[in-house]
Amino acid sequence: MFDKILIANRGEIALRIHRACREMGIHTVAVHSTADENAMQVRLADESVCIGPAPSAESYLNIPNIVSAAMITGAEAIHPGYGFLSENAYFAEIVEAHGIVFIGPSPQHIETMGDKVAAKEAMIAAGVPVVPGSDGAVAAIDDARQTADRIGYPVLIKAASGGGGKGMKVADNADVLAEQINLARREAKANFGDDSVYLEKYLANPRHIELQIVADDEGNVVHLGERDCSLQRNHQKVLEEAPSPALNAGERQRLGEIGCNAIRSLGYRNAGTLEFLYENGEFYFIEMNTRLQVEHPVSEAISGIDIVREQIRIADGAPLSFKQEDIDFYGHAIECRINAEDPATFAPWPGRIVEYHPPGGLGVRVDSGLYAGYSVPPHYDSMIAKLIVHGATRNECLMRLRRALEEFVITGVRTTIPLHRQLMAQDDFINGEYDIRWLEAYVARQAGA
Q1: Are residues 212 and 195 in the same domain?
Q2: Do 91 and 144 fall within a single domain?
Q3: Are 193 and 88 contacting, i.e. CB atoms less than 8 angstroms apart?
Q4: How far apart are alpha carbons 292 and 36 in whole angstroms?
Q5: DSSP 37
Q6: For tag attachment on the chain, is the N or C end more exposed, with fewer CB atoms within 10 Å?
Q7: Where does a domain end: 179, 201, 223?
Q8: Same domain as 47, residue 137
């Protein structure tokens, strides 16, 4: 087993990885920018290395500095967490070229799945259903018009590279198709350096369902159940739960079989997530994330599997420590993403934490690097904590989550805790009757009230 791992990330996920390493007897190296010198993961790690100033491009995205930090400290492996360089195939290649283990899939799989057109083609070849759309990127407006006429309006225009809703536009009819494609291309170019776009049928009221998988180098593939990530704003997830309240046992089994068969045929290793749109009993593949997900704790809660620990074991060459039949899914889990944002306008709200009191009790987990006196920097993503609650039933989980949100105290900055408290009182959420457009409609109603 590795003796020392460098964690190429920050915030709660860096702390999460550190904790898994310490429980496995592995020493940790925390890298940090000048803005994060007092971060909790830096304080707790065995060693720390400053890799640059506050801007991400000069620190957490600085490949030479990160690799140098690993070599100087003698780290045998690098865990990228999520975001930043976690899905950068070039980074994985450079890490391996320097004799360091990249804790994740192969650079080839990262590259293939990072290109949504290539990923879609790979999944079609593996027998996975996809949303009807163009055969690859569309080069000419006339080709786009033919595709749109074939699949029917409205159509969704998506960037071939990247994610997070960037380079994504909707064309309701032929009159606006060219304009929306040009807007999507400009946005994709600005954010990802690639203006390639493709078309998909715009589904009216789908759910966002994803499947957590783990695979080793020996061809063993296991899924840890599905997550429902339909509560989104601007294509960014706000709350996730597992299992999905929308699926029945037959659909759940079918999804697991589809996902595991696809991953096995690809020869993929380590953790990954297959994301689908679900509507009228059908699943449509949209993309694969070749990394740890923000919402992985809800899968851990219902499966009892430490995903980060398993990632590290697989990267060290060990086979999966369990089989599909060993997993006994139990209960229900929900995760709330707590952001340092105004709960009404969603404007970022960095600042100094005055009071911090996380909730506790049976079935309550808080992943966060906050402490009283810590200053939330303005340079990075605004998520500052994740509240994960588990219960024997969905109703028990909801009751426990309401209680936990009432206990959660963060002062000094505004947070989205009030928004989550509001959501817990909505009948549609309580009954599990929501889709990917529900939250934005709710926020719009609140703003107009």
Answers
A1: no
A2: no
A3: no
A4: 22
A5: T
A6: C
A7: 201
A8: no
Residue 418 belongs to a domain = yes
Q: Which two tokens stand for residue 230?
A: 């339909």
Tokens of 225: 């159940």
- How many other CB atoms are there within 10 angstroms of residue 441's CB atom? 12
177 and 48 within one domain: no
pTM for the full predicted model? 0.92
Determine if the peptide bond prior to 358 is cis (ω within 30°): no
Q: What is the pLDDT of residue 231?
A: 98
Residue 32's CB is within 10 A of a number of other CB atoms, namely 24
**What is the reported pLDDT for 449?**
65
Tell me what percent of the residues of the chain surpass a pLDDT of 70: 100
pLDDT at 161: 85
Q: 182 and 58: one domain?
A: no
Mark 166-189 as b/e (b = at least 16 C-beta within 10 Å).
bbbbebeeeeebeebbebbbebbb
As a whole number of angstroms, the distance between CA 410 and CA 12 comes to 16
pLDDT in tens, 223-282: 999 999 999 998 899 999 999 999 999 999 999 999 999 999 999 999 999 999 999 999
d(CA 140, CA 194): 16
Give per-residue pLDDT as tens, 341-375: 999 999 999 999 999 999 999 999 999 999 999 99
Are 86 and 150 in a shared domain?
Answer: no
Cα 388 to chain centroid, rounded: 15
pLDDT tens digits for 47-84? Answer: 999 999 999 999 999 999 999 999 999 999 999 999 99
Percent of the chain with pLDDT over 90: 93
Total domain count, the chain: 3
Name the residue range of residue 412's domain. Answer: 207-448
CATH number at residue 197: 3.30.1490.20
Give the CATH number, domain containing residue 247. 3.30.470.20
The DSSP-derived string for 202-214 is --SS-EEEEEEEE
Task: State how far the Cα of 440 lies from the Cα of 208, in Å rounded to an integer.
Answer: 14
